[in-house]
């Protein structure tokens, strides 16, 4: 792959980013190598069965890089992996950084074999690593290794690595033991790639609104927000970091980068379903936690159920990836945890966040301020060349050092993502206050049109979440032959909570919803389906309604 930069990045911006210290002459591998040299015995990572230091992590990355090199992989070629979060995931990324390869961790547990095959073909992967039985249909009998047959004829493919599930037998064993393709490492590896500005990472968007786009980043664009978070939230080598968001999601990779920059230990989230996440976080001494609102809701529920006063040593919790109900932030504060309300996309990383000591109204009602190296603007939806002032609602746009390099093999999509002035258009609607704090108000493409009236679903969801019984809510557009679309409110009640359509309508009306904005259907659920990034999977809800497996209840 030619690492062609398709965005508006140019020589002037590149020089400016370096001059301001946002970009530096260091790769992900170089950072890990520095930790291994300066603090070789400090803990780098742990899962339920293994705990390794920086020296061991670097050795694993070197070993895998040597195997890639022996297979003939060349700089710029793509490597993808499909597995639950495990220590090997980080070693793969570092091995790719070592050789100048491009790493793609996007395949996740909800993907089917066919979907992952499509990614591999688009990327023309040179190496593929996977854990048998991981994936939406890979658990089916006889399909544990189906991905090998699906991609086996790719001309670009040199090798498929089959990694068994981590278990007690792996404790103390070197990473990738018995899994190498070339047998013994070559006598000499080439010098490490020293270019932090090349394309090093490709992440596919969730694809909830169409064909997933392959977002290209360099080491430097990934590291900008990690460096800023470490400085602003005082994350260092004494901190223990954990992400509940998987590495297949950019939020999880961002947490990985944060731990890497800080030299902090990263605790892998591999707690089996049914076992206590609260106990695992306490046992491992996690200080800084990253996740989505669903994770926060589940943790708070367990703390309350067990009448526990605190969540171990957790003192800060970044809650991002989707809109978080204000009461969740309030409850985290009640448990002695400082929430970090945040916002970001695969295209621009976790660039927006509240700071330690921010007032509760900013934590509950905003996404924080942009990090150093990134700038946010609100643009007129009808004229992207006109910038709006504080308090005005418009399109959220951004530019700066943590922005993607473009979409993989998609010149048209890349050009369409930017305004003529070089602003990346997010598609989100929002407003800035006088101090640069961002409040999201909806998605431009998610506006419902009922009888010619534009309706913002995010506002309805936020107001519904303020009801004492509602844990999570999602507004769906149901087709209507006369009005075009009608409003359905799907929701999950808090444990033990009950409500009625009449009570919810009264609550929403009292909060200021006009008559034409009120839901006309309700859909109470035990749980809401989620995409891998933690957002509610509205397309899946609509598919279930279309199949008849879910039936919204009309307002009487």
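Sequence proposed for the structure above (556 residues):
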């Amino acid at each position: 792959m030619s690492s062609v930069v398709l965005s508006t990045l140019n020589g002037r911006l590149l020089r400016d980013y370096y001059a301001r210290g946002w970009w530096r002459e260091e790769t992900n591998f170089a950072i890990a190598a520095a930790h291994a040299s300066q603090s070789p015995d400090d803990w780098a990572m742990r899962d339920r069965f293994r705990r390794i230091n920086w020296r061991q992590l670097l050795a694993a990355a070197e070993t895998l890089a040597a195997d890639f090199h022996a297979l003939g992989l060349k700089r710029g070629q793509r490597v993808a992996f499909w597995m639950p979060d495990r220590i090997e995931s980080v070693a793969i990324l570092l091995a790719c950084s070592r050789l100048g390869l491009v790493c793609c961790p996007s395949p996740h547990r909800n993907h089917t074999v066919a979907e992952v095959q499509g990614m591999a073909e688009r990327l023309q992967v040179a190496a593929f690593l996977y854990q048998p039985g991981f994936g939406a249909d890979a658990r089916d009998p006889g399909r544990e290794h189906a991905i090998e047959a699906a991609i086996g004829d790719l001309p670009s493919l040199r090798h498929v690595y089959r990694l068994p599930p981590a278990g007690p037998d792996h404790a103390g064993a070197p990473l990738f033991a018995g899994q190498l393709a070339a047998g013994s490492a070559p006598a000499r590896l080439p010098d490490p790639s020293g270019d932090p500005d090349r394309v090093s990472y490709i992440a596919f968007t969730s694809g909830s609104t169409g064909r997933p786009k392959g977002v290209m980043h360099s080491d430097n664009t990934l590291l900008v927000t990690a460096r800023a978070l470490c400085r602003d939230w005082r994350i260092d080598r004494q901190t223990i970091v954990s992400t509940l968001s998987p590495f297949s999601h950019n939020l999880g990779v961002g947490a990985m980068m944060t731990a890497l920059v800080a030299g902090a230990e990263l605790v892998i989230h591999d707690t089996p379903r049914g076992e206590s996440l609260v106990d695992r976080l306490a046992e491992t001494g996690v200080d800084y936690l990253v996740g989505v609102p669903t994770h926060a809701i589940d943790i708070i529920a367990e703390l309350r159920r067990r009448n526990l006063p605190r969540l171990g040593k957790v003192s800060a919790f970044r809650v991002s990836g989707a809109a978080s109900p204000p009461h969740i932030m309030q409850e985290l504060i009640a448990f002695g945890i400082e929430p970090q309300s945040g916002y970001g996309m695969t295209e621009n990383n976790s660039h927006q966040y509240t700071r330690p000591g921010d007032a509760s109204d900013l934590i509950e009602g905003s996404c924080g301020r942009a990090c150093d190296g990134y700038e946010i603007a609100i643009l007129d939806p009808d004229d992207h060349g006109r910038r709006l002032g504080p308090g005005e609602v418009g399109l959220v746009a951004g530019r700066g050092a943590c922005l993607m390099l473009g979409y993989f093999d998609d010149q048209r999509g890349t050009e369409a993502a930017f305004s003529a002035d070089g602003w990346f258009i997010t598609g989100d609607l929002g407003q800035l206050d006088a101090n640069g704090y961002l409040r999201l108000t909806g998605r431009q493409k998610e506006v419902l049109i009922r009888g010619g009236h534009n309706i913002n679903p995010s506002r309805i969801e936020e107001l519904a979440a303020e009801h004492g019984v509602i844990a999570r809510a999602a507004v769906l557009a149901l087709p209507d032959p006369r009005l075009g679309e009608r409003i359905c409110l799907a929701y999950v009640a808090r444990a033990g909570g009950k409500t009625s359509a009449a009570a919810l309508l009264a609550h929403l009306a009292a909060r200021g919803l006009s008559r034409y904005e009120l839901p006309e259907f309700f859909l109470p659920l035990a749980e809401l389906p989620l995409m891998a990034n933690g957002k509610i999977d509205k397309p899946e809800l609509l598919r279930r309604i279309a199949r008849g497996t879910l039936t919204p209840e009309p307002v009487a």
